[in-house]
Design a protein that fits this description.
- 2 copies of one chain form a homodimer.
- About 0% of the residues of chain A have low confidence.
- By secondary structure, chain A is of the alpha/beta class.
- The first copy, chain A, has an 8-stranded parallel β-barrel, surrounded by 9 helices.
- Helix content of chain A is about 40%, strand content about 15%.
- Chains A, B: Keywords: Lyase, Metal-binding.
Chain lengths: ~325, ~325
Amino acid sequence: MRTEEIDVLVSEVGPRDGLQSVDRTMPTELKFRWVDALAGAGLREIEVGSFVSPKRLPQMADTGQVVAHARGIEGLNVLALVPNLRGAQDAVAAGAQALTMPISASRAHSLANIGKTPEEAIREVSRVAGFLASRDEPVSLEVGVSTAFGCTIQGPVPEDEVLEIARACAEAGADSVGLSDTTGSANPAQVRRMFTALRRELGERAGGAHLHNTRGQGLANVVAALDAGVRTLDSSQAGLGGCPYAPGASGNIVTEDLVYLLESMGLRTGVDLEALIEAREIIREGLPGEPLYGHVPDAGVHNGFVYAGSQEVTR
Amino acid sequence: MRTEEIDVLVSEVGPRDGLQSVDRTMPTELKFRWVDALAGAGLREIEVGSFVSPKRLPQMADTGQVVAHARGIEGLNVLALVPNLRGAQDAVAAGAQALTMPISASRAHSLANIGKTPEEAIREVSRVAGFLASRDEPVSLEVGVSTAFGCTIQGPVPEDEVLEIARACAEAGADSVGLSDTTGSANPAQVRRMFTALRRELGERAGGAHLHNTRGQGLANVVAALDAGVRTLDSSQAGLGGCPYAPGASGNIVTEDLVYLLESMGLRTGVDLEALIEAREIIREGLPGEPLYGHVPDAGVHNGFVYAGSQEVTR
């Protein structure tokens, strides 16, 4: 699978966004097996953990080990979340190939989430970009602008402020800047408008969409993002996770349902749905009783479903 | 609300499609209250029941009474499903203002569902249209082409056959012909393509979209339908219902989540979400223990949500 061409990159965030949102810790050995299974199902990029204080998020304390393990998987892009320079140094030391930094467009959310204003957070992006530039081996830096479509604390976030922050992050040295619907407030008209504007502003540096399904609108927003040219979409197996610091917000879009959507539309993901659905067993084993979301795992694919590129039946 | 302009007609099918899919019967008095509450929340059109044999669907035996009751609600378009001429006669006698007839594009589904081939079903459309034309008071006739996006029994349904059936129904005298994703097989690329073709073929007589959420793709398909110019969307409160004769298929799109989607996008529905969500209590009372679906009823609207047309904040 790994060498086939794909049309859309499904970036799996479950091992980071999912596992940091539950109040138990999945044993390291099971994280290894889960990452193996996700990559084995054909996912090309996995956000495997977060380099934050283990006091704050003990679920992520073994991220260095998970990165090192994931680096052993051929063809996988191993992504880690870092909040600051220190986290970036740890991530690079562990072997991460790409770093993602969250920057809140909402001042209130930024302070609540990382204790910094957006301006301070952008200065940290500069520091991390400088550090990465000083090294021989290339490590890419992605920024995700969170609360880009609204905030549970401050309410609407002005769209020009979101775009201004995205521009500032690109100028600070981020290789790509995506937009996150952290609080599940986005609607398709807004998603289309914002990603169109982002691409106009940043061109090739316009990043992917991180969408939530809090209000059942996740895949509707995916359709709008695709229309706006987005070709990288974050999702979480079984819909695990969300943002623990945005009260009332929960629910990443479900990787299983997203892959089905894309393949049905004729967009190749490289993912095998059956193998992907099997990987849910590892969550059941590692986090017994945790609710697992998704419609396709229950309903199965439809009669006549074919993977994108296989034939033209459903296209 | 009733006199305000709207951009999209949300056609509520719960009292028909929802109630015929559960194996209990909601008491007539509660059906009255539910229809009252739905109309009170601002819905302009409700499919209140089905004029079929009470032996086959005892849940629908009181449809005549429900139609008569609903006719007392000012400004409401009272729609009833009819399988044939006899049902149409009963529906008109009861006071229905619009009739909807299902025609399966899939031959296998048509035989399983109504015991007729598609050609026989189209002849029945002619008979019903002739009957309606012979009367003084206008009653409109809508046809919904079911299994238009695939069939659980026969698999893919050729798109040109679907369009051919739609054309034949319009020629037979249907005022509008819509497309139904009876089995939850549709994807947004297909929905966009099919409704674009339908409008090209039928112009003003191209009808609405009846979409299911079987695989979590319901609102994603709504976005595609809107793009293709569709302005009438069927949905069911709490996602009640689906097609009982298509094995494995279930789950109408949820009216609450649909209204939220449309209003968030700036498309006026005339529906008050709070009043709509309150109406769920009547289902709880009438069908205790029945699973109620929908994300917006649990999550609420987002901080900063405004109804379409109120202001520009989220648009």
